[in-house]
């Protein structure tokens, strides 16, 4: 059995990890950790978790982690992650970090977009970007994973194969993405509270959202040269799910058929359990993915404007956070990537 510790188990991403891992056939959760709720049962926060009450929420103790864990998931805000992850690595455990702190190759890019000083830039060389469909081999050999962001997962999975095959113009990309409110985390933030967000709809982070830089970095690897794009997130009045509608110009002077687009996606994602490519003109909805680790991608060519419109959907807490983290753990420990992960959505 893989012995797992979860730091930040009380947050939305941590809670989803506890849920997924408690039924994983190869995992024993040995410690769940919190800063503010030490000594409490997890059912005091999440009422349905009575079955897990023999485990109390604990403070972080590195000696105990060294003895009892093979891998630790850190589900923390970005700044505490930068300080805690190196101490975990020094214990000899593998680490899967869900924050933005270990996703970039260049600390200067992280610092510019997050406004946080990175005190351990040396670890960025060692960290592997945990998008399983792109970096399976590197993940298998990694000790530290920077688990991707939720908007970025939906966006990169939709665009990477098309840029790699030169099927869209890299200077024309516009990503219009919408997220459920759990994307903002459990801690109280007034603009994201029920009354402020329910039956309303708004854009935020316009031109400055930090995920712009994460998407650009990864897509530059696909294109083989820098990519700059426009990314606008919106807050949807639903609990979970991300739907990104993406616009890009088709290559100038070239006729691109749906068969070429479909072929590029299907070839790139051959053997990937969680990527579902719909036929030309069929578009996914949030209810196709919520509750599962899937990413559904649909597209339509706009012949009149010589553009491609792509719609990509994930569950922000599963493929966008905890599910992807489990998929990473599976690969790091030589398991099939899909072990213990939900394939089907909660349709109703
Ligand atoms: N929500 C989402 O959809 C996604 C989130 N993420 C990322 O995952 C991480 C966790 O997000 P999320 O679960 O939403 O956040 P929450 O706000 O819901 O939870 C944050 C967790 O971090 C713990 N925590 C906060 N500050 C500290 C600290 N100084 N030291 C130790 N623990 C601390 C809290 O512990 P406690 O209150 O128990 O003390 C809590 O368990 C973030 O980096 C986020 O950006 C990534 C992708 C998607
Ligand atoms: C709705 C909402 O607020 N979403 C979050 C993104 C959640 C996520 O992916 O977080 P990290 O990339 O920071 O880990 C936001 O826009 O800040």
Automatic annotation (TrEMBL):
Active site residues per record: 150
Extract the PROSITE patterns matched here. ARGC
Which EC number(s) does UniProt give?
1.2.1.38
Keywords from UniProt, A to Z, are: Amino-acid biosynthesis, Arginine biosynthesis, Cytoplasm, NADP, Oxidoreductase
Under the heading InterPro entries, the entry gives: AGPR, AGPR_AS, AGPR_dimerisation_dom, AGPR_type-1, NAD(P)-bd_dom_sf, Semialdehyde_DH_NAD-bd
The entry sums up its family as follows: Belongs to the NAGSA dehydrogenase family. Type 1 subfamily.
Function, in words = Catalyzes the NADPH-dependent reduction of N-acetyl-5-glutamyl phosphate to yield N-acetyl-L-glutamate 5-semialdehyde.
Protein name stated in the entry = N-acetyl-gamma-glutamyl-phosphate reductase
